[in-house]
Specification:
This protein is α/β, with parallel strands linked by helices and 336 residues long. The protein has a single domain, classed as Thymidylate Synthase, Chain A (2-Layer Sandwich), CATH 3.30.572. Helix content is 43%, strand content 15%. It is built from 13 helices and 10 strands. The strands form 2 sheets. Strands 1-4-9-7-6-5 form a 6-stranded mixed beta sheet. It has a 4-stranded mixed beta sheet with strand order 2-3-10-8. A hairpin with a 6-residue loop joins β6 and β7.
């Protein structure tokens, strides 16, 4: 078993890149050549709320990652919302309208409302070992020829014996390092973790991810080497993205947002196109402005997009800073 410890998402990305370069084995896959870690890998995110990947070479899209996390918490499996952000997302759908393995739908609808059941269980019995969230369906998934089978299969929540916080363990059958593990997934599951912790009145503990097959596709081999260079101890202080910057998920107003009894229904309203005030700080001051800014960016109205990101998003927050940096790396923002 290989273990990667990190204090922030970029650090995990750099360390995993190094592990693949020095220990990876090339092999074929359904989608071409990959570099695969020869044994399972466990990630330990000591501060899961530090979930944003800032690395400019990785160039992670904070708009997409945050909005997809909101889409998951809404329980939706519809393609339209995500394809309006990243058009290629439709290629992962079997029918162009829904996703077979949509995580949020699996959490909240496919097997019943598991999130509500887990909240009730942890509230009544905080030290339970039975708070298990199922994603993989052996009947609907095993042997099924779908474009969208869940890569993350099971999630466990358990009160920490260290300090009473809520730990989360995610089990994963197959994870692409760049687009999956240390891109989108670290954000999605950090939001899930924060939502559950807030609603059972526990602090966010540690986030463990057990990945059976960690790999990187050939198109990202050059990127791996760039990321590996930053794994060196000498780079870490210089490249620490959270110095002087607050993680969104640790903000009291955001924790309050998760506790809103109508939160998940409001997420769904946003996903279905509502731009009205939701009386929810996370949605009103972060998700909806980021959605509007992204649409303006896509329409090449760079001044208007920048104005929203610079003036409407909360200051000194990780997603705000990541949004600014991501836009600045794109044409049209040289002079804003």
């Amino acid at each position: 078993m290989s273990e990667i410890y990190s204090d922030f998402a970029d650090e995990a990305l750099w360390e995993a890149a190094r592990a693949l370069i020095f220990g990876g084995v090339k092999e074929g896959s359904r989608n071409g050549t990959v570099l695969r870690h020869p044994i399972p890998v466990t990630f330990l995110h000591c501060h899961p709320e530090r979930c944003v990947v800032f690395d400019p070479d990785r160039d992670a899209n904070p708009f997409f990652h945050l909005l997809e996390a909101i889409w998951m918490l809404s329980g939706s499996n519809k393609v339209e919302f995500l394809s309006n952000i990243v058009p290629r997302m439709v290629s992962f759908s079997d029918d162009g309208e829904t996703f077979h393995g949509a995580y949020g739908h699996r959490w909240a609808n496919y097997f019943g409302d598991q999130l509500e059941d887990i909240l009730r269980l942890l509230t009544s019995e905080p030290n339970t070992r039975r708070a298990v969230l199922g994603i993989w369906d052996p009947i609907g998934d095993l042997g099924t020829n779908s474009r969208d089978l869940p890569c993350n299969t099971t999630v466990y929540f358990q009160q920490s014996c260290r300090d009473g916080s809520l730990d989360m363990t995610v089990c994963n059958r197959s994870n692409d390092l760049v687009w999956g593990a240390l891109g989108a997934n670290v954000v999605h599951f950090a939001f899930l973790h924060a939502y559950i912790a807030a609603n059972v009145n526990m602090a966010i503990g540690r986030y463990y991810q057990f990945t059976t097959n960690l790999h990187c596709y050939e198109q990202h081999f050059e990127l791996l080497h760039k990321l590996d260079e930053k794994s060196d101890k000498g780079f870490r202080k210089e490249l620490q993205p959270y110095t002087g910057r607050k993680p969104l998920l640790s903000e009291p107003l955001i924790i309050k947002s998760f506790k809103d009894p109508g939160f998940r229904k409001k997420c769904l309203a946003v996903v279905e196109g509502s731009q009205e005030r939701m009386q929810n700080p996370l949605l009103d001051f972060v998700a909806i402005p980021m959605w509007k800014a992204l649409q303006l960016h896509k329409a090449k109205d760079h001044q208007a997009a920048w104005k929203i990101v610079n003036e409407e998003l909360p200051g000194n927050i990780d997603f705000t800073e990541a949004a600014k940096l991501w836009l600045k790396r794109r044409k049209g923002y040289e002079t804003v």
